[in-house]
Amino acid sequence: MAKLKNLEDYREEIEQCVKCGACRAHCPVFGAERREGRVARGKVALSKAVLDGEIGLEEKVIEDLSQCLLCGSCCAGCPNKVPTEEIVAAARRKIAEQRGLSSFGKGVAAILGRPKLMNTLAKTGGALSSLLFKKLPEHSGLRLRFPAPYLESGRTLPPLTARPFRERCPERIEGKEGMPTVAFFTGCGINYMYPEIGEAFLRALKFLGVTVIIPGDQACCGLPAVSAGAGEVVEQLAEQNLAALTREPVDYVLTACASCNAGIGKIYADLGGDYEQLAAKTRDIFVFLVEMGLPEKLAELPSRGVKTRVTYHDPCHLRTRGITKEPRAILKSLPQVEFVEMEDAATCCGLGGTYSVYHYENSKRIGAKKAGRIEESGAELVATDCPGCIMQLQDAVNHAGGKQRAVHILELLNEVLPEE
Amino acid sequence: MLEQRIIRNLQQTLGKEHVSTDKADLICYSYDATQQQFLPDVVIYPATAEDVALVMKLANAENIPVFPRGAGSGFTGGSLPTRGGIVLSTERMNRILEIDSENLVATVEPGVVTEQFQKAVEKLGLFYPPDPASLKFSTLGGNVAECAGGPRCVKYGVTKDFIIGLEVVTPTGDIITTGGPTMKGVVGYDLTKLICGSEGTLGIITRIVIKLLPLPEAKKTMLVMFDSIDGAARAVSTIIGHKIIPTTLEFMDGRTLDCVRQATDLEVPEGARAVLIIEVDGDREFLAKQVQKIQQLIQPLGVVETRSAETPEESEALWQIRRSVSASLRKVNPDKFNEDICVPRSKVPEMIRKVDAIAEKYQIPIVNFGHAGDGNIHVNVMIDKKVPGELERAHKAIEEVFKGALELGGTMSGEHGVGIAKAPYIPLEISEKAADYMKTIKKALDPNNILNPGKIFLD
């Protein structure tokens, strides 16, 4: 099994921090709670102190290191490009190794490591009322996305689907000759919460005549486990996904979830070897659709008289990978869409993997800022490219008393694709 | 280590959650942009001037040093807790209290981030010009304490030119106000100006009254590449000699451009040995004429290439070269000293030649860029601390740079202040009598020497 890097392996990157303080302008957590321990510079200083043996993994250190969305905003605004999100993830792994996974971390490990259990729990969940969740044992994997604090905190959540997406579709959908063959990495969000995004994905590729393989034994990408510091779980999931996604030769592995894109495209790349090759083949759906000339095809569709005003939220896991133009290009080419840019489109929504579970109050404060920006833009819909962001954005809008809906761009695309 | 009863006293005054002795917090408040670290004994987060006054009274009674801190982004160690004691963070005092559009005056607390204040006044068509490079994260309290500058200062002046009143907690714990919201006022000594740039040694700023300007209608940016530093320098004096004061006159020397070429894929023609970024602002119609005139004036001075921007996006693209400098330098050498000497603007080429000679003598790369319009040069001495002897050579080189600036009628620091970084060099610039005058003020106001001790002057 390939291994993730240790905190010790990041010493050089840690020493690149010149303590200028620029991250204070970019960190959403610092924006919500103005304390130096909350900002990248503080976390990097603490990581260094831990490495140098100046401080142990005591409670306040763990608390500060848990207060990170891993959104990468600090790195983007850092003059020396210090990868704080990688350093914090490595520090969390060190904490997990030495102090054991926190109770939520254990839940993540249990569920992600056993996809069959997740299937069962998700299916049961779809049919049950939220009250039942509270009766689940503490370490139940279902708490990965629906831990008790969520339900008690008034978070609005989409219902779990009774029939996961991957159980609904065949493992192979034949396209036209001469067109590429792709594997669809669905991710948990689409599989268990938003199967309609998966359906829209398949329709878009069918429209282009692309052959799609949907391996049934694919697992979670592992990003929530990265966030929780469950290093071994990440490594296991990577191994399982490598097998599932390379069984048949494909030209690309496509994602319609920003987090999965970063999971396979970036975290796996760091594992080297075959993982690196898999990562190199990974494409975001909109990058692929733009490469396939979809905007030009959409331009041929008749324009609509009444248009819906739509803005776009940049998921961190695409923005940090330089993917910002393609989702906008697709949105702008949709005949029913009047695109408006909102201020701070590139600022994190506040979900941050497991962050919003540990720190829902801060997560809500960060989300509230976003809801304000959406309102100011005058848009009716906020479109994005990540089920996690959709969940958080909708929750933020609901709490702000807004009327806007959070949707996946694929759902809007689905509205205008010609009937078969 | 402070006694438990003192910590309890602080907790009673400020509330438990606003006092921390957690090792993790002590580490997080031990540094600034000098990268030096000194652990305090306690970090406190007061919310009001009354809180701060009580803390100062306690600190005097118990003889504990207090170190005020904004964002901790200074380059000279002004906020470093060099003697342990209390770090007093202004992070909770971050409200914009009033923006008075009728009188063009605003009142803020010290922890407000400069850019956030600028955005707030710009929404009302008003303007706060000082723009230190750290404006996205540094605080107004810190800007006032250090008297921060920035590119726009050539036309508009520095921080102190916009501060007309303050509320200050004295080192002994009294709350006083200086100046006020009027544009004129000559009653008593000008304590506002005394506090501006006093580096947190004479009082803790708890409220700031700021003068505003109407927001200029438009701005135009030009980037001009010259075949020599002399051409660029002559361009500066020619423009100003023709009674045009641009908003910004930023320069980069040939060595800086070499670093940018080496570290980025930005387009910098080989023949370019100096760059000026020139910005003008004002009424739209008037700007086009001004740009044309500037171009005519500087064309004969060895211009290699001129790029101009019409939109904010294009302007940002031109600034890319300047913004890439810091990261580019680090790729050339890992450690650097960023000094900020200032000379009369006509002496800039002579100063650059001096610096080149010093770099040659000590065999250390030194690059220069900065604010040509006001002769404020950022002299970056680039070394690798791990290489034996480099640090010592760098210190010698820096001392010679300071001496060189002073010989030309300049100063060791235009913007960054003295803090601890330049304290050893003070006698080069300030006469013994003048230093005594300053120290007498400090001693009278802070008899126990507990407010930011050891800064500016070595004890």
Automatic annotation (TrEMBL), chain A:
InterPro entries on file: 4Fe4S_Fe-S-bd (IPR017896), 4Fe4S_Fe_S_CS (IPR017900), Cys_rich_dom (IPR004017), Glc_ox_4Fe-4S (IPR012257), Helical_ferredxn (IPR009051)
PROSITE patterns, A to Z: 4FE4S_FER_1, 4FE4S_FER_2
EC top class named in words: oxidoreductase
Alphabetical list of Gene3D superfamilies matching this protein: Alpha-helical ferredoxin
Source domain of life: Bacteria
4Fe-4S ferredoxin-type domain residues: 8-38, 59-88
Cofactor-binding details, from the entry: Binds 2 [4Fe-4S] clusters.
Catalytic activity, EC: 1.1.99.14
Cofactors, names only: [4Fe-4S] cluster
Keyword field: 4Fe-4S, Electron transport, Iron, Iron-sulfur, Metal-binding, Repeat, Transport
Catalytic activity: (R)-lactate + A = pyruvate + AH2; glycolate + A = glyoxylate + AH2
Pfam families given in the database record: CCG, Fer4_8
Record function comment: Component of a complex that catalyzes the oxidation of glycolate to glyoxylate.
Protein's name according to its UniProt entry: Glycolate oxidase iron-sulfur subunit
UniProtKB/TrEMBL annotation, chain B:
CC cofactor: FAD
Keyword Iron-sulfur: no
A single GO molecular function term of this UniProt record: oxidoreductase activity
InterPro entries reported for this sequence: FAD-bd_oxidored_4_C (IPR004113), FAD-bd_PCMH (IPR016166), FAD-bd_PCMH-like_sf (IPR036318), FAD-bd_PCMH_sub2 (IPR016169), FAD-linked_Oxase-like_C (IPR016164), FAD-linked_OxidoTrans_Type4 (IPR051914), Oxid_FAD_bind_N (IPR006094), Vanillyl_alc_oxidase_C-sub2 (IPR016171)
Keywords assigned: FAD, Flavoprotein, Oxidoreductase
FAD-binding PCMH-type domain: residues covered: 36-215
Record family assignment: Belongs to the FAD-binding oxidoreductase/transferase type 4 family.
Protein name in UniProt: Glycolate oxidase subunit GlcD
Species whose genome carries this gene: Geothermobacter hydrogeniphilus
